[in-house]
């Protein structure tokens, strides 16, 4: 679709906010794919082996990390869009 | 089990089933447009669905028989290995966060409704678009089959499925009836039927989950007792293999399998036609990102449901077919009437996604195969007719999987679908970020991945069947057991990269790219961004 090209962003492509957001999104992969780091029984929590409750805790941790990434990216996006006008 | 028909549970189940069937047929009149004879109406509910209904539809992708029957059954049979579904759903959201907003933007700029549309527009290749469409339809079939297996498990436990000795037709008759009802109301009402029924489904499911994960552990003496009993059960040797039946945590040799299953499944989920349709219908790219911060809470529920597999062992449930473990647990633990409610939740929870999946696959067929290759000048009425018939054929294909494959390891159905659908990842997600890949290289990579994946899966034997007995095999070069889908995907990417270099050197003609870089970051309200996508078969 024809559309005038946007003026180049006033911010550099790599900003601290983007880097932190990227790290937030990559961390769950590192944590979950390194199975050896959590495949054990002890310590148990309310009778549940570590293996199970640790992964459930990661559901919450990854939710928090994604929220952080969302906030950072949204702010970054606003700054970029504001900078164009 | 199967000592007789559980009358009360069956009555409650039939009550709910009839109620949703009536709703399914009446749905055709819900918010009906003047002219219902076009694909927009049938396949996308007239696009009148707001955020809430979309959210319910998206929930339908996550809460299926996979969650309720297949995952706990895998835990019941093998222990820790089945828990990979939790890291799988954890990893899905960072992935969605990264690539789906770009797909949303480019689709709303150019009016793409399917992944095939995007691939054709980006790479200017009808062949690649056809490959993506065919893969989507094929991979959806075993996923629908998994839903049918879930329904069958419930019917079996209620005593209407017939034993092993019954004539096959009598045995499969209740399943065929359920299948017929599903097919009939999808045919007549389209996407409206599952959207309306999804409300009933989700309400039932939340009630059952809440009761199950509180009531059952209390009755069984807490998690300590549950895991102690499960640990004892897994340490006994399985007479068929001579190895321990399972483990509470994956051993050193099982860790590759665990990680590759989680990663492969996560990469695959949002390649499925039905998940893409649900996402693209959201209001803006912001909504997608906001949803990825809320949706992971589903994974917590999935984890708790998975633990039902351990509870089944602790409760002393002994079934030959693991899929029956959870329904049987419900029947043993709950009063009959509530068991009926739980069975209805599982049954309807399987029917809704089955309907959504078959509609998405049918839309893909009509838009990217029928319109593009067979009859470009089809009228809207013809398109709707073709879509309706295609939705039937997809379900018949699913039925073939159910009747021919080993149903005791239903999670394999989903994993088999994953092996195939994952092969469209390089074209789709690669295409969202770079135009460097050559279209011919993508087709070659896709073919290699499909062939390797299918052959490798064909070669996996299980104690109950010779072929397609599992989804994991030795990874060539690494020597560990891993998910075939991910191995095929890596091969696919390697072929794509190597051949892209070759084609670029040979100056092979590049397809026309109709998108521009700004299209991938456009948001609602930007110039040229369509608020509503056009009809799935309309001009673009």
UniProtKB/TrEMBL annotation, chain A:
It comes from the Bacteria. Keywords: Membrane, Transmembrane, Transmembrane helix. The chain crosses the membrane at residues 20-39, 51-73. PANTHER family: BSL5891 PROTEIN (PTHR40034). This is DUF3311 domain-containing protein. It comes from Streptomyces meridianus.
Automatic annotation (TrEMBL), chain B:
It comes from the Bacteria. It is a multi-pass membrane protein. Pfam families: SSF (PF00474). The keyword Cytoplasm does not apply. InterPro entries: Na/Glc_symporter_sf, Na/solute_symporter, Sodium:Solute_Symporter. Belongs to the sodium:solute symporter (SSF) (TC 2.A.21) family. PANTHER family: MONOCARBOXYLIC ACID PERMEASE (PTHR48086:SF8), SODIUM/PROLINE SYMPORTER-RELATED (PTHR48086). This is Sodium:solute symporter. It comes from Streptomyces meridianus.
């Amino acid at each position: 679709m024809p559309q005038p090209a946007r003026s180049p962003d006033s911010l550099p492509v790599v900003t601290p906010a983007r880097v932190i957001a990227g790290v937030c999104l990559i961390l769950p992969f590192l944590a979950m794919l390194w199975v050896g780091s959590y495949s054990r029984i002890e310590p148990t929590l309310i009778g549940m082996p570590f293996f199970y409750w640790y992964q459930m805790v990661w559901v919450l941790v990854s939710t928090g990390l994604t929220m952080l990434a969302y906030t950072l990216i949204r702010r970054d996006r606003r700054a970029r869009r504001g900078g164009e006008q | 089990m199967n000592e007789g028909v559980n009358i009360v549970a069956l009555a409650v189940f039939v009550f709910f089933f009839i109620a949703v069937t009536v709703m399914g047929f009446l749905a055709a009149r819900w918010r009906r447009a003047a002219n219902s004879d076009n694909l927009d109406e049938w396949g996308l509910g007239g696009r009148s669905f707001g955020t809430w209904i979309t959210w319910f539809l998206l929930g339908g992708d996550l809460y299926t028989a996979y969650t309720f029957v297949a995952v706990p059954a895998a835990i019941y049979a093998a222990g820790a290995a089945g828990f990979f579904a939790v890291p799988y759903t954890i990893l899905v959201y960072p992935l969605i966060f990264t690539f789906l907003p770009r797909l949303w933007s480019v689709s709303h700029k150019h009016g793409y409704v399917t992944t095939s549309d995007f691939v054709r527009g980006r790479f200017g290749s009808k062949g690649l678009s056809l490959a993506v469409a065919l893969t989507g339809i094929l991979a959806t079939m075993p996923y629908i089959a998994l839903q049918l297996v879930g329904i069958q498990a419930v019917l079996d436990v209620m005593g209407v499925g017939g034993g092993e000795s019954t004539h096959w037709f009598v045995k499969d008759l209740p399943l065929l009836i359920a299948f017929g009802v599903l097919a009939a109301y999808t045919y007549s009402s389209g996407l409206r039927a599952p959207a309306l029924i999804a409300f009933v489904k989700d309400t039932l499911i939340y009630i059952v989950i809440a009761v199950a994960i509180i009531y059952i552990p209390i009755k069984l003496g807490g998690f300590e007792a549950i895991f102690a009993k499960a640990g004892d059960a897994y340490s006994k040797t399985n007479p068929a293999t001579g190895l321990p039946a399972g483990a509470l945590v994956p051993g050193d040799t099982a860790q590759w399998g665990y990680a590759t299953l989680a990663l492969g499944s996560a990469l695959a989920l949002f390649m499925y036609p039905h998940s893409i349709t649900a996402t693209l219908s959201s209001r803006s790219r912001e909504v997608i990102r906001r949803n990825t911060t809320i949706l992971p809470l589903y994974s917590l529920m999935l984890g708790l449901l998975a633990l039902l597999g351990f509870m089944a062992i602790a409760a002393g449930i002994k079934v030959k077919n693991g899929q029956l473990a959870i329904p049987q647990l419900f029947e043993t633990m709950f009063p009959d009437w509530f068991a009926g409610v739980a069975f209805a939740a599982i049954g309807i929870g399987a029917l809704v996604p089955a309907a959504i999946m078959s509609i998405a696959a049918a839309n893909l067929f009509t838009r990217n195969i029928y319109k593009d290759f067979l009859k470009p000048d089809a009228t809207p009425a013809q398109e709707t007719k073709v879509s309706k018939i295609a939705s039937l054929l997809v379900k018949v294909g699913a039925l073939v999987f159910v009747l021919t494959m080993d149903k005791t390891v239903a999670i394999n159905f989903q994993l088999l679908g994953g092996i195939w659908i994952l092969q469209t990842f390089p074209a789709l997600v690669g295409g969202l970020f770079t135009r460097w890949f050559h279209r011919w290289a993508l087709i070659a990579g896709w073919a290699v991945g499909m062939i390797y994946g299918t052959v490798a899966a064909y070669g996996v034997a299980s104690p109950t069947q010779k072929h397609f007995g599992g989804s994991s095999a030795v990874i060539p070069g690494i020597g560990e057991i891993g998910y075939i889908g991910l191995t095929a995907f890596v091969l696919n990417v390697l072929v794509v990269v190597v051949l892209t270099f070759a084609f670029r050197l040979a100056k092979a003609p590049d397809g026309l790219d109709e998108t521009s870089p700004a299209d991938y970051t456009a948001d609602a309200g930007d110039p040229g961004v369509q608020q509503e996508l056009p009809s799935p078969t309309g001009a673009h």
